[in-house]
Specification:
single chain; alpha/beta; 6-stranded mixed beta sheet; 4-stranded parallel beta sheet; 15 helices; 23 strands; about 40% helix; FAD/NAD-binding_dom; EC 1.6.5.9; NDH-2
Amino acid sequence: MSESYASSLVLRFVLTFRASRVWSGSQAETPSLFGHGKVCAPVNAAPHRVVVVGSGFGGLFATKALRRSDVEVTLVARTAHHLFQPLLYQVATGILSEGEIAPSTRIVLRDQRNANVLIGDVTDIDPDTRTVTSVHRGRVTVTPYDSVIVAAGAGQSYFGNDRFAEFAPGMKTLDDALELRGRIMNAFDAAELATDPAERARLLTFVVVGAGPTGVEMAGQIAELSKRTLAGTFRTIDPRDARIVLLDAAPKVLPPFADSLGEHARRRLESLGVEVTLNAAVTDVDTDGLVVRAADGTEHRIEAATKVWSAGVSASPLGAMLASKSDAEIDRAGRVLVNPDLTVPGLPNVFVVGDMMALDGLPGVAQVAIQGGRYAARVIADEVKAAAEGRPVPERRPFRYRDKGSMATVSRFSAVAQVGPVKITGFLAWLMWLVVHVAYVVGFKSRLTTVCNWAWTFLGRTRTQLTVTHQQTEARLALGRLVSLEDARAARETPVRPEQLAG
């Protein structure tokens, strides 16, 4: 090695060492972005890490609202799609395909360079280590965060009778909708083959439990499917003879709406041949039917092959987990009682939005999730920007929900809508429902095909998505049995400790 080359190496080392001493001595300590006072971040500080749990309305809209912020967003969800849940009943009744209401989350966020999508079921959120743990097919992923937005949604509630789920699927996932489509169409096919009148009547009886918006829409579409689309397609049976029953323990249809709107929906359903039974609680469900208890305590049985459960919701178990690690409480539905800024009490960098949050009696509807997700994203973006510019962290304003009204379809050309004190029924409400819902369908192609399918279904009698497979109908129960077998095998292979034998 030449002397000049060795000297240059020594000089370079000295200069580098002095520069590092100057940098480390002048760098100010960076407190949390969610503290008070002025924040001075180093020029080359790592971007703020935001983890979003859930790809529903709250999670997706929160992620998209951060697209122009200097943050790194990781969206963790158990599915690879964004689900437009209010239109699930149209997948179940053959109006829309699953792709039209459930686009790929990765494709939706493809052009958002600061967003990454991870598939996994979130099992833990640790405020101490600031990590989110998720599991996908046995692979455990731990994702660090500076802020987290929890929008894991809610599942179906059977009010402590989870065994009902085997016989009466809910309406919360694509799998639910596809299974219900299979059960509905298979019931008509089986009725065509039945020779016993009682068995045929059972196969042609459809019971929807829950007279909220989902139940009303589902009952109305099963009625129209049987009376319009399937009329004349069978030779032994007449699908128009199908019996559709709508049950609810409440005293009115559409409890969240004004009484006059609920009464309008009830009359319209009855004009379609739907039997509406109120003040009726379901006490038992099995393969062949269900038992109903009336308000006077008497019980009667309805023989029905196809049952749909839309009577209640229960928040994600992540709500109870967060409450156990903070000062938060949960309500009877498992929702977290959040602060006015949608954070978990004691955890100012953990936001909870959508169906998982409980605040001021807000309903579990899409608009609450969308506005909550955008609000949480805006708070994070404002505080990150203030920290980057060395300004005081802005005071958080409380979340304010802007009620844009509630809508529910009853049948084609008929819906109910309530916007503040204004109540609208019939064809005008139905047009409003169409416009609002197509606006929130993600992607131009999906909007276009949705409108086309609506035109074919509502103006004509065609439903283009009535194809069913054996897998759609049987997969959920088969997987459930497989899990039970795996659990039983694991229990057999678990060694017994001496103290257990002694006990």
